[in-house]
């Protein structure tokens, strides 16, 4: 597993974004043929017949402040600012038919080879939006990942909050010890005791910025992935379709993009079948700095060259840890199904019922996790802070599994319903 980067200093007025349009754009916005703003238009996304194929950059942009605790009236102005706007949340989304692979890029990732003669801060990817706009940010991400980027979407915090509200809020579980984050200079007042919570948009944005209880930036990235899994699932519901006016209405009011929203109908038929997989760009610390060098070789293993590819069979000796928060005792049925398929090391932990989305999580056992994710029809998350060891895959069963994996109830009672890869999916998670 990639070593933890050095501890970073918090910036008080920086409002970290969660890439809120990612829940919209990874399913709705980025399928489009691109517009041509500015002197350097991006290339058009590829569409084979009615099946979308494209790569989209999603960036969360800071709110800009003109005075102490006072946002600028014109959020697009570039002079007279207390602090320039960075893009601390970056996600590269690759859509290949119904497979959606999301790569989180840490904000301190260096663009190109590190140059000790240049400013350390200016070499970080999160500074490129301010210095050169969305096109420069897009080119920087292409340099880091080696991937072609077809389009960009840059969003602000206020838009993120509106989208989360339109999708019904966010269900989260606060770790032991709770969260208390009060920062008068930044206008932050978030106090949540340990346990489950339903958050509105404004609360959710603050929760997804906080690092207490989640480790460092990598831990924060991972619980942002979990939030996107939950919100993206809602796009497939009537509630999600009802939220489309809010999602698309943000363009020009919190959203900067070269995606044509008029092509929405191109992707709508594919929404029920979209499958998500998340990963974090592997990096190495650059000695003497807070900057991170991308590890291209590791990236090829965990995301780049495997996106959209069929996963090889799972190793029979992989450990599987099931956390059953379904509220319906589905873990027993899942354990029985897994053992019948040859998984000999399976443990089940009961947890309080949770509305968090069901998901597969892993550290290094990516191939085995892909196999299980495909069999169960669940999103796979790979990150730096999930509580799994080497050669272990975790499965979280949330309340949504009562519908999407309903056949597990019969298996838990000793029924003879088909196992795992043939479990009927009455509703996508």
Give short descriptive properties of this protein.
429 residues; alpha/beta; Aminopeptidase; Alpha-Beta Plaits; twelve-stranded mixed β-sheet; 13 helices; disordered N terminus; LytR/CpsA/Psr_CW_biosynth; LytR_CpsA_psr; LytR family transcriptional regulator; LytR/CpsA/Psr_C
Assigned CATH superfamily of the largest domain? LCP protein
Number of helices: 13
Main β-sheet, in a few words?
Answer: 12 strands, mixed
Count of individual domains: 2
* Cα shape: globular
InterPro entries: LytR/CpsA/Psr_C, LytR/CpsA/Psr_CW_biosynth, LytR_CpsA_psr
Domain Cell envelope-related transcriptional attenuator: 86-236
Domain LytR/CpsA/Psr regulator C-terminal: 317-400
Family: Belongs to the LytR/CpsA/Psr (LCP) family.
Map the helices and strands.
Blueprint: H1 22-29, E1 46-48, E2 51-61, E3 65-67, E4 70-71, E5 89-96, E6 99-105, H2 128-145, E7 151-156, H3 157-166, E8 170-174, E9 179-183, E10 188-192, E11 195-199, H4 201-207, H5 217-234, H6 238-242, H7 244-249, E12 255-257, H8 264-267, E13 275-280, E14 283-285, E15 292-294, H9 296-304, E16 319-324, H10 330-340, E17 346-350, E18 359-362, H11 366-376, E19 380-382, E20 392-397, H12 401-404, H13 407-412
Parallel strand pairs: 2-7, 6-13, 13-19, 16-17, 16-20, 18-19
Antiparallel strand pairs: 1-2, 2-5, 3-4, 5-6, 7-12, 8-11, 9-10, 14-15, 18-20
Helix pairs in contact: 1-5, 3-4
């Amino acid at each position: 597993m990639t070593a933890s980067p050095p501890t970073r200093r918090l910036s008080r007025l920086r409002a970290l974004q969660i890439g809120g349009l990612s829940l919209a754009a990874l399913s709705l916005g980025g399928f489009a043929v691109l517009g041509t703003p500015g002197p350097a238009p991006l290339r058009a996304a590829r569409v084979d017949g009615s099946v979308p194929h494209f790569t989209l950059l999603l960036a969360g942009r800071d709110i800009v402040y003109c005075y102490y605790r006072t946002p600028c009236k014109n959020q697009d102005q570039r002079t007279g600012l207390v602090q320039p706007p960075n893009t601390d949340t970056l996600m590269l989304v690759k859509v290949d038919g119904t497979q959606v692979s999301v790569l989180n890029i840490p904000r301190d990732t260096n663009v190109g080879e590190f140059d000790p003669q240049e400013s350390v801060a200016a070499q970080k990817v999160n500074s490129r939006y301010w210095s050169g706009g969305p096109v420069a940010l897009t080119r920087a991400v292409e340099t880091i990942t080696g991937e072609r980027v077809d389009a960009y979407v840059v969003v602000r915090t206020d838009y993120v909050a509106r989208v989360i509200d339109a999708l019904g809020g966010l269900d989260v579980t606060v770790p032991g010890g709770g969260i208390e984050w009060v920062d008068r200079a930044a206008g932050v007042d978030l106090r949540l005791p340990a346990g489950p919570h339903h958050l509105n948009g404004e609360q959710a944005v603050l929760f997804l910025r906080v690092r207490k209880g989640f480790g460092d930036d990598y831990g924060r990235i991972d619980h942002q992935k979990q939030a996107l899994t939950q919100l993206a699932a809602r796009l497939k519901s009537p509630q999600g379709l009802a939220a489309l006016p809010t999602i698309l209405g943000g363009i020009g009011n919190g959203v900067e993009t070269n995606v044509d929203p008029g092509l929405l109908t191109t992707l709508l038929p594919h929404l029920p079948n979209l499958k998500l997989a998340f990963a974090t760009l592997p990096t190495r610390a650059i000695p003497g700095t807070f900057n991170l060098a991308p590890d291209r070789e590791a990236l090829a293993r965990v995301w780049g060259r495997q996106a959209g590819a069929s996963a090889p069979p799972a190793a029979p000796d992989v450990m599987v840890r099931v956390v059953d928060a379904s509220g319906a005792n589905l873990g027993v049925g899942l354990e029985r199904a897994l053992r019948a398929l040859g998984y000999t090391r399976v443990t089940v932990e009961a947890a309080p019922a949770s509305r968090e989305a069901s998901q597969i999580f892993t550290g290094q056992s990516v191939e085995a996790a892909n196999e299980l994710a495909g069999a169960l029809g669940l999103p796979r998350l790979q990150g730096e802070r999930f509580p799994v060891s080497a050669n272990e895959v975790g499965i979280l069963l949330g309340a949504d599994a009562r519908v999407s994996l309903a056949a597990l109830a019969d298996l838990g009672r000793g029924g003879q319903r088909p196992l795992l890869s043939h479990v009927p999916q009455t509703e996508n998670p």
